[in-house]
């Protein structure tokens, strides 16, 4: 039995528009809803004991769709720690417009460098630290007790959670591509007690 599945939300209106969403609460597109149903079909036969999600509607909506198919009656637990990183001045901008305004090199550094912080935003290192209490106090104890969990969140929050769950270095976790609504079954490395 798979103890943990990580799932990025289905396509959102920001994904479709190539926009930095971050903390913006943007909905799923019709294609994103279909992706969520396809993710549920791909996970058919697996019944998680818990479903955790970012409270942003693109993730919580995906979690509701997938959770209702896999584990009817299991309520989606929303955890603020799972919210996508804050993109600061980039939030709401199309990626091409952000590169034109701030320079491609700056935007690339802010996006994928562990310490890169867009003005007014959050670095991946900061996001990693934000997720630490969720990992140590919420998710790890559930996994240690033998419970299975579906976590539905965002590309960057899932990458940084993956660093905690699998013991990856930040640079390795940052390099992981996480497509929308594609289930990821990570190797879980629980610390020895």
Search tags:
193 residues, alpha/beta, Rossmann fold, four-stranded parallel β-sheet, 8 helices, 4 strands, 9% strand
Describe the structure concisely:
This protein is an alpha/beta fold and 193 residues long. The chain is built from eight helices and four strands. Helix 2 packs parallel to helix 3 (57-70).
Overview of the structural elements:
The protein has 193 residues and is an alpha/beta fold. The chain has a single domain (4-174), classed as Phosphoglycerate mutase-like (Rossmann fold), CATH 3.40.50.1240. 45% of the residues lie in helices and 9% in strands. The protein has eight helices and four strands. The protein has helices at residues 13-16, 30-42, 57-70, 95-102, 104-112, 124-144, 155-166, 170-174; strands at 4-8, 50-53, 76-78, 149-153. Strands 1-4-2-3 form a four-stranded parallel beta sheet, sandwiched between helices. Strand 2, helix 3 and strand 3 form a beta-alpha-beta unit. The longest helix is centred in the last third of the chain and has 21 residues, at 124-144. It starts with a strand and ends in a 19-residue tail after the last helix. The model has no long low-confidence stretch (mean pLDDT 97).
């Amino acid at each position: 039995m798979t103890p943990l599945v990580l799932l990025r939300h289905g396509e959102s209106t920001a994904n479709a528009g190539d926009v930095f969403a971050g903390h913006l609460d943007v909905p799923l597109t019709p294609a994103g809803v279909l992706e969520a149903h396809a993710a549920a079909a791909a996970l058919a036969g697996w019944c998680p004991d818990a479903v955790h999600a970012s409270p942003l509607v693109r993730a919580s909506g995906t979690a509701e769709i997938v959770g209702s198919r896999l584990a009817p009656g299991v309520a989606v637990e929303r955890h603020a720690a799972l919210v996508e990183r804050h993109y600061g001045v980039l939030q709401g901008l199309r990626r091409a417009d952000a590169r034109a305004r701030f320079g491609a090199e700056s935007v690339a550094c802010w996006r994928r460098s562990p310490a890169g912080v867009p003005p007014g935003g959050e670095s991946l290192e900061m996001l990693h630290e934000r997720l630490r209490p969720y990992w140590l106090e919420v998710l790890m104890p559930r996994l240690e007790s033998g419970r299975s969990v579906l976590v539905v969140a965002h590309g960057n929050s899932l990458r940084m959670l993956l660093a905690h769950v699998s013991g990856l270095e930040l640079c390795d976790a940052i390099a992981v591509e996480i497509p929308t609504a594609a289930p990821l079954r990570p190797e879980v490395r629980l610390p020895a007690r």
